[in-house]
Amino acid sequence: MTRAAVLTAVGAPLEVAEIELPGPGPGQVRVRLAAAGVCHSDLSLSDGTLRQPVPAVLGHEGAGTVTAVGAGVDTLAPGDQVVLNWAPSCGDCHFCGLDEPWLCANSGAAAATPYAKLAADGTDLHPGLGTAVFAEETVVPAHAALPLPPGVPLTEAALLGCAVLTGWGAVQHSARVRAGESVAVFGAGGVGLATLQAARIAGAGPIVAVDVSPAKEELARAAGATEFLLASDDTAKRIRKLTGGHGADVAIECVGRAESIRTAWSSTRRGGRTTVVGIGGQDQQVTFSALELFYFGRTLSGCVYGNSNPATDLPHIAEHVRTGALDLSGMVTEHITLDGIPAAFQAMREGRGGRALIVF
Protein backbone atom coordinates (compact mmCIF):
# COMPACT_ATOMS: atom_id res chain seq x y z
CA MET A 1 0.00 0.00 0.00
CA THR A 2 1.08 3.56 -0.74
CA ARG A 3 -0.36 6.84 0.55
CA ALA A 4 -1.30 9.33 -2.14
CA ALA A 5 -3.29 12.52 -2.68
CA VAL A 6 -6.19 11.56 -4.96
CA LEU A 7 -8.29 13.86 -7.16
CA THR A 8 -11.63 12.03 -7.32
CA ALA A 9 -13.29 14.49 -9.73
CA VAL A 10 -12.45 17.77 -11.43
CA GLY A 11 -13.01 20.56 -8.93
CA ALA A 12 -13.08 18.24 -5.93
CA PRO A 13 -10.61 18.63 -3.05
CA LEU A 14 -7.71 16.21 -2.98
CA GLU A 15 -8.10 13.32 -0.54
CA VAL A 16 -5.18 11.45 1.01
CA ALA A 17 -5.88 7.73 0.65
CA GLU A 18 -4.22 4.34 0.37
CA ILE A 19 -3.61 3.11 -3.16
CA GLU A 20 -2.48 -0.22 -4.58
CA LEU A 21 0.57 0.37 -6.75
CA PRO A 22 1.68 -2.56 -8.92
CA GLY A 23 5.25 -3.48 -9.61
CA PRO A 24 6.87 -2.00 -12.71
CA GLY A 25 5.89 -3.55 -16.01
CA PRO A 26 8.11 -3.84 -19.08
CA GLY A 27 9.96 -0.58 -19.68
CA GLN A 28 8.88 0.88 -16.34
CA VAL A 29 10.52 1.72 -13.02
CA ARG A 30 9.14 2.12 -9.51
CA VAL A 31 10.35 5.16 -7.59
CA ARG A 32 10.18 5.98 -3.90
CA LEU A 33 9.66 9.76 -3.73
CA ALA A 34 11.93 11.90 -1.58
CA ALA A 35 10.09 15.14 -2.34
CA ALA A 36 7.54 16.70 -4.68
CA GLY A 37 6.89 20.32 -5.52
CA VAL A 38 3.36 21.74 -5.62
CA CYS A 39 3.13 23.48 -8.99
CA HIS A 40 0.43 25.79 -10.33
CA SER A 41 -0.11 23.29 -13.15
CA ASP A 42 -1.35 20.80 -10.55
CA LEU A 43 -3.93 23.36 -9.47
CA SER A 44 -4.88 23.86 -13.13
CA LEU A 45 -5.34 20.10 -13.52
CA SER A 46 -7.49 19.91 -10.42
CA ASP A 47 -9.82 22.73 -11.46
CA GLY A 48 -10.13 21.69 -15.09
CA THR A 49 -8.06 24.44 -16.71
CA LEU A 50 -5.86 21.63 -18.01
CA ARG A 51 -7.30 18.27 -18.97
CA GLN A 52 -6.55 15.19 -16.88
CA PRO A 53 -8.50 11.91 -16.74
CA VAL A 54 -9.89 11.31 -13.26
CA PRO A 55 -9.76 9.92 -10.69
CA ALA A 56 -6.05 10.63 -10.60
CA VAL A 57 -3.03 11.10 -8.40
CA LEU A 58 -1.63 14.51 -9.31
CA GLY A 59 1.91 15.86 -8.95
CA HIS A 60 4.57 16.08 -11.64
CA GLU A 61 7.60 17.76 -10.04
CA GLY A 62 9.47 15.10 -8.09
CA ALA A 63 12.68 13.27 -7.30
CA GLY A 64 13.37 9.99 -5.57
CA THR A 65 15.10 6.63 -5.60
CA VAL A 66 14.45 3.70 -7.93
CA THR A 67 13.28 0.67 -5.96
CA ALA A 68 12.52 -1.77 -8.82
CA VAL A 69 12.82 -1.97 -12.60
CA GLY A 70 10.70 -3.81 -15.12
CA ALA A 71 11.73 -6.11 -17.92
CA GLY A 72 13.89 -4.54 -20.60
CA VAL A 73 15.12 -1.64 -18.45
CA ASP A 74 18.91 -1.45 -18.57
CA THR A 75 19.46 2.28 -18.08
CA LEU A 76 18.49 2.36 -14.39
CA ALA A 77 18.88 0.07 -11.39
CA PRO A 78 17.48 -0.08 -7.85
CA GLY A 79 19.19 2.53 -5.71
CA ASP A 80 19.61 5.08 -8.50
CA GLN A 81 18.49 8.59 -7.63
CA VAL A 82 16.34 10.20 -10.31
CA VAL A 83 14.47 13.35 -11.30
CA LEU A 84 11.11 12.67 -12.92
CA ASN A 85 10.34 14.13 -16.34
CA TRP A 86 6.61 14.71 -16.83
CA ALA A 87 6.99 15.23 -20.59
CA PRO A 88 9.36 12.50 -21.81
CA SER A 89 9.84 12.62 -25.57
CA CYS A 90 9.24 9.56 -27.72
CA GLY A 91 12.04 10.31 -30.18
CA ASP A 92 9.94 9.21 -33.15
CA CYS A 93 7.18 11.77 -33.78
CA HIS A 94 7.26 14.75 -36.14
CA PHE A 95 8.33 17.20 -33.44
CA CYS A 96 11.06 14.96 -32.06
CA GLY A 97 12.31 14.68 -35.63
CA LEU A 98 12.56 18.47 -35.67
CA ASP A 99 14.64 18.30 -32.45
CA GLU A 100 11.82 19.91 -30.49
CA PRO A 101 11.25 17.27 -27.77
CA TRP A 102 9.24 19.70 -25.63
CA LEU A 103 6.49 19.50 -28.27
CA CYS A 104 6.52 15.69 -28.49
CA ALA A 105 3.13 14.44 -29.68
CA ASN A 106 3.30 11.37 -27.44
CA SER A 107 4.71 12.81 -24.22
CA GLY A 108 1.33 12.75 -22.50
CA ALA A 109 0.44 9.16 -23.31
CA ALA A 110 1.10 7.81 -19.82
CA ALA A 111 -1.43 10.17 -18.22
CA ALA A 112 -4.30 8.54 -20.13
CA THR A 113 -3.58 5.01 -18.89
CA PRO A 114 -4.58 3.84 -15.37
CA TYR A 115 -1.54 2.92 -13.33
CA ALA A 116 -2.86 2.05 -9.85
CA LYS A 117 -6.05 1.34 -7.91
CA LEU A 118 -7.77 2.91 -4.93
CA ALA A 119 -7.29 0.46 -2.09
CA ALA A 120 -10.77 1.05 -0.67
CA ASP A 121 -12.76 -0.11 -3.71
CA GLY A 122 -10.38 -0.98 -6.56
CA THR A 123 -11.19 2.11 -8.64
CA ASP A 124 -8.66 2.69 -11.42
CA LEU A 125 -6.43 5.72 -10.93
CA HIS A 126 -4.63 7.76 -13.58
CA PRO A 127 -1.17 9.26 -13.07
CA GLY A 128 -1.25 13.08 -13.14
CA LEU A 129 0.83 14.23 -16.13
CA GLY A 130 2.11 10.66 -16.27
CA THR A 131 4.14 10.90 -13.07
CA ALA A 132 1.77 11.01 -10.05
CA VAL A 133 4.31 12.26 -7.52
CA PHE A 134 1.78 13.32 -4.87
CA ALA A 135 2.39 9.86 -3.42
CA GLU A 136 4.99 8.01 -1.42
CA GLU A 137 5.83 5.89 -4.47
CA THR A 138 5.03 5.91 -8.17
CA VAL A 139 5.56 3.85 -11.32
CA VAL A 140 6.68 5.62 -14.50
CA PRO A 141 8.19 4.79 -17.90
CA ALA A 142 11.94 4.39 -17.54
CA HIS A 143 12.62 7.23 -19.96
CA ALA A 144 10.66 9.54 -17.63
CA ALA A 145 13.22 9.00 -14.86
CA LEU A 146 16.42 10.96 -15.43
CA PRO A 147 19.56 10.16 -13.43
CA LEU A 148 20.21 12.85 -10.83
CA PRO A 149 23.53 14.56 -11.55
CA PRO A 150 26.01 14.26 -8.68
CA GLY A 151 26.23 16.97 -6.06
CA VAL A 152 22.54 17.94 -6.07
CA PRO A 153 20.59 17.19 -2.85
CA LEU A 154 17.86 14.66 -3.60
CA THR A 155 15.06 16.51 -1.78
CA GLU A 156 15.70 19.85 -3.44
CA ALA A 157 16.23 18.11 -6.79
CA ALA A 158 12.45 17.75 -7.06
CA LEU A 159 12.35 21.39 -8.20
CA LEU A 160 14.46 20.51 -11.22
CA GLY A 161 11.58 18.46 -12.60
CA CYS A 162 9.45 21.46 -13.53
CA ALA A 163 10.06 24.91 -12.03
CA VAL A 164 13.79 25.08 -12.67
CA LEU A 165 13.79 23.43 -16.10
CA THR A 166 10.95 25.73 -17.15
CA GLY A 167 12.51 28.93 -15.80
CA TRP A 168 15.97 28.04 -17.04
CA GLY A 169 14.68 27.11 -20.47
CA ALA A 170 12.54 30.23 -20.76
CA VAL A 171 15.67 32.33 -20.34
CA GLN A 172 18.16 30.20 -22.23
CA HIS A 173 16.11 28.66 -25.03
CA SER A 174 12.94 30.66 -25.60
CA ALA A 175 13.92 34.26 -24.84
CA ARG A 176 17.64 33.61 -25.47
CA VAL A 177 18.70 36.24 -22.96
CA ARG A 178 22.15 37.69 -23.54
CA ALA A 179 24.49 39.26 -21.01
CA GLY A 180 23.66 42.93 -20.46
CA GLU A 181 20.06 42.68 -21.64
CA SER A 182 17.28 43.99 -19.44
CA VAL A 183 14.68 41.47 -18.33
CA ALA A 184 11.24 41.85 -16.72
CA VAL A 185 9.76 38.77 -15.02
CA PHE A 186 6.04 38.75 -14.28
CA GLY A 187 5.13 36.52 -11.35
CA ALA A 188 7.47 35.51 -8.53
CA GLY A 189 6.12 32.07 -7.70
CA GLY A 190 8.18 28.91 -8.13
CA VAL A 191 8.74 29.25 -11.88
CA GLY A 192 9.22 33.02 -11.63
CA LEU A 193 11.91 32.63 -8.97
CA ALA A 194 13.71 30.08 -11.13
CA THR A 195 13.43 32.47 -14.08
CA LEU A 196 14.92 35.32 -12.07
CA GLN A 197 17.87 33.14 -11.07
CA ALA A 198 18.40 32.03 -14.66
CA ALA A 199 18.35 35.66 -15.84
CA ARG A 200 20.94 36.57 -13.21
CA ILE A 201 23.16 33.66 -14.23
CA ALA A 202 22.84 34.77 -17.86
CA GLY A 203 24.27 38.16 -16.90
CA ALA A 204 21.10 40.16 -17.50
CA GLY A 205 20.57 43.59 -16.01
CA PRO A 206 18.55 45.32 -14.86
CA ILE A 207 16.24 42.48 -13.82
CA VAL A 208 12.76 43.70 -12.86
CA ALA A 209 10.39 41.43 -10.93
CA VAL A 210 6.66 42.18 -11.00
CA ASP A 211 4.12 40.61 -8.65
CA VAL A 212 0.80 41.42 -7.00
CA SER A 213 2.12 40.66 -3.51
CA PRO A 214 4.56 42.95 -1.69
CA ALA A 215 5.64 39.93 0.37
CA LYS A 216 7.35 38.55 -2.76
CA GLU A 217 9.94 41.34 -2.89
CA GLU A 218 12.43 39.70 -0.57
CA LEU A 219 12.21 36.38 -2.43
CA ALA A 220 12.52 38.09 -5.81
CA ARG A 221 15.57 40.14 -4.84
CA ALA A 222 17.26 37.08 -3.32
CA ALA A 223 16.71 35.30 -6.63
CA GLY A 224 18.33 38.07 -8.65
CA ALA A 225 15.86 40.89 -9.17
CA THR A 226 17.52 44.30 -9.07
CA GLU A 227 14.12 46.03 -9.03
CA PHE A 228 10.72 44.99 -7.71
CA LEU A 229 7.37 46.42 -8.78
CA LEU A 230 3.89 45.80 -7.49
CA ALA A 231 1.62 45.13 -10.45
CA SER A 232 -0.47 48.17 -11.34
CA ASP A 233 -2.08 49.93 -14.27
CA ASP A 234 1.18 51.73 -15.08
CA THR A 235 3.54 48.76 -14.76
CA ALA A 236 4.71 48.98 -18.37
CA LYS A 237 5.42 52.69 -18.01
CA ARG A 238 7.45 52.08 -14.84
CA ILE A 239 9.47 49.35 -16.53
CA ARG A 240 10.28 51.67 -19.41
CA LYS A 241 11.50 54.25 -16.89
CA LEU A 242 13.79 51.65 -15.31
CA THR A 243 15.22 50.69 -18.70
CA GLY A 244 16.29 54.02 -20.12
CA GLY A 245 12.86 54.89 -21.47
CA HIS A 246 12.95 52.15 -24.10
CA GLY A 247 11.41 49.15 -22.35
CA ALA A 248 12.91 45.80 -21.40
CA ASP A 249 14.78 43.79 -23.98
CA VAL A 250 12.97 40.70 -22.71
CA ALA A 251 9.77 40.11 -20.73
CA ILE A 252 8.94 36.66 -19.36
CA GLU A 253 5.37 36.11 -18.18
CA CYS A 254 4.94 33.38 -15.54
CA VAL A 255 1.32 33.99 -14.56
CA GLY A 256 -0.88 32.97 -17.48
CA ARG A 257 -3.39 35.82 -17.36
CA ALA A 258 -4.41 37.98 -20.31
CA GLU A 259 -3.75 41.19 -18.41
CA SER A 260 -0.20 40.29 -17.40
CA ILE A 261 0.62 38.90 -20.86
CA ARG A 262 -0.55 42.15 -22.43
CA THR A 263 1.44 44.18 -19.88
CA ALA A 264 4.55 42.09 -20.46
CA TRP A 265 4.26 42.75 -24.20
CA SER A 266 3.78 46.48 -23.64
CA SER A 267 6.77 46.66 -21.28
CA THR A 268 9.29 45.55 -23.90
CA ARG A 269 11.17 47.86 -26.22
CA ARG A 270 10.70 48.05 -29.98
CA GLY A 271 12.15 44.80 -31.28
CA GLY A 272 11.90 43.26 -27.81
CA ARG A 273 10.96 39.69 -26.98
CA THR A 274 8.09 38.44 -24.80
CA THR A 275 7.95 34.81 -23.70
CA VAL A 276 4.78 33.43 -22.13
CA VAL A 277 5.42 30.64 -19.65
CA GLY A 278 2.23 30.91 -17.58
CA ILE A 279 -0.64 28.58 -18.46
CA GLY A 280 -3.96 30.38 -18.75
CA GLY A 281 -7.49 29.23 -19.48
CA GLN A 282 -9.24 29.45 -22.85
CA ASP A 283 -11.18 32.44 -21.54
CA GLN A 284 -7.99 34.49 -21.23
CA GLN A 285 -7.99 36.38 -24.52
CA VAL A 286 -5.14 38.77 -25.42
CA THR A 287 -5.64 41.37 -28.16
CA PHE A 288 -3.23 43.45 -30.24
CA SER A 289 -3.84 45.96 -32.99
CA ALA A 290 -2.41 45.32 -36.44
CA LEU A 291 -0.67 48.70 -36.35
CA GLU A 292 1.20 48.07 -33.13
CA LEU A 293 2.36 44.67 -34.37
CA PHE A 294 3.97 46.44 -37.30
CA TYR A 295 5.29 49.46 -35.45
CA PHE A 296 6.87 47.82 -32.42
CA GLY A 297 8.36 44.81 -34.22
CA ARG A 298 8.21 42.77 -31.03
CA THR A 299 8.27 38.99 -30.83
CA LEU A 300 5.70 37.09 -28.76
CA SER A 301 6.28 33.39 -28.17
CA GLY A 302 4.84 30.57 -26.12
CA CYS A 303 7.09 28.37 -24.04
CA VAL A 304 6.39 24.70 -23.23
CA TYR A 305 8.47 23.22 -20.38
CA GLY A 306 11.06 25.91 -21.03
CA ASN A 307 11.58 24.59 -24.58
CA SER A 308 14.03 22.32 -22.78
CA ASN A 309 15.56 18.95 -23.41
CA PRO A 310 15.80 17.71 -19.81
CA ALA A 311 18.39 15.04 -20.61
CA THR A 312 20.89 17.63 -21.85
CA ASP A 313 19.83 20.61 -19.74
CA LEU A 314 19.93 18.92 -16.33
CA PRO A 315 23.74 18.50 -16.28
CA HIS A 316 24.22 22.21 -17.06
CA ILE A 317 21.74 23.25 -14.38
CA ALA A 318 23.32 20.88 -11.86
CA GLU A 319 26.69 22.54 -12.37
CA HIS A 320 25.19 25.88 -11.33
CA VAL A 321 23.65 24.20 -8.28
CA ARG A 322 27.03 22.74 -7.30
CA THR A 323 28.77 26.10 -7.62
CA GLY A 324 26.07 27.86 -5.62
CA ALA A 325 25.02 30.09 -8.51
CA LEU A 326 21.57 28.46 -8.50
CA ASP A 327 19.94 28.24 -5.07
CA LEU A 328 17.20 25.61 -4.97
CA SER A 329 16.45 26.01 -1.28
CA GLY A 330 15.76 29.72 -1.72
CA MET A 331 12.76 28.89 -3.91
CA VAL A 332 11.07 26.86 -1.18
CA THR A 333 8.93 28.83 1.25
CA GLU A 334 7.18 25.90 2.93
CA HIS A 335 7.85 22.22 3.63
CA ILE A 336 4.64 20.20 3.91
CA THR A 337 3.18 16.69 3.95
CA LEU A 338 0.56 15.26 1.58
CA ASP A 339 -2.12 16.63 3.86
CA GLY A 340 -0.84 20.17 3.25
CA ILE A 341 -1.54 20.21 -0.50
CA PRO A 342 -5.00 21.87 -0.29
CA ALA A 343 -3.53 24.74 1.74
CA ALA A 344 -0.69 25.05 -0.78
CA PHE A 345 -3.27 25.24 -3.59
CA GLN A 346 -5.08 28.02 -1.75
CA ALA A 347 -1.82 29.92 -1.26
CA MET A 348 -1.25 29.79 -5.03
CA ARG A 349 -4.76 31.06 -5.71
CA GLU A 350 -4.01 34.01 -3.41
CA GLY A 351 -0.54 34.63 -4.87
CA ARG A 352 1.30 33.80 -1.65
CA GLY A 353 4.70 32.20 -1.25
CA GLY A 354 7.21 30.55 -3.56
CA ARG A 355 7.32 26.77 -3.87
CA ALA A 356 5.68 24.47 -1.34
CA LEU A 357 7.69 21.23 -1.15
CA ILE A 358 6.22 17.92 -0.01
CA VAL A 359 8.88 15.99 1.88
CA PHE A 360 8.33 12.27 2.39
Describe the model.
With 360 residues, the chain is of the alpha/beta class. The protein is 25% helix and 26% strand. It has ten helices and 18 strands. It has helices spanning 40-47, 94-97, 163-174, 190-201, 217-223, 235-242, 258-266, 290-296, 310-323, 341-349, and strands spanning 2-7, 15-20, 28-38, 56-57, 61-69, 81-84, 116-118, 124-127, 137-141, 145-147, 183-186, 207-211, 227-230, 248-253, 268-276, 299-302, 332-336, 355-359. Strands 3, 5, 6, 9, 10, 17 and 18 form a seven-stranded mixed sheet that branches. A six-stranded parallel sheet has the order 13-12-11-14-15-16, sandwiched between helices. A five-stranded mixed barrel has the order 1-2-7-8-4. Helix 5 (217-223) links the parallel strand 12 (207-211) and strand 13. The longest helix is centred in the last third of the chain and has 14 residues, at 310-323. The model has no long low-confidence stretch (mean pLDDT 94).
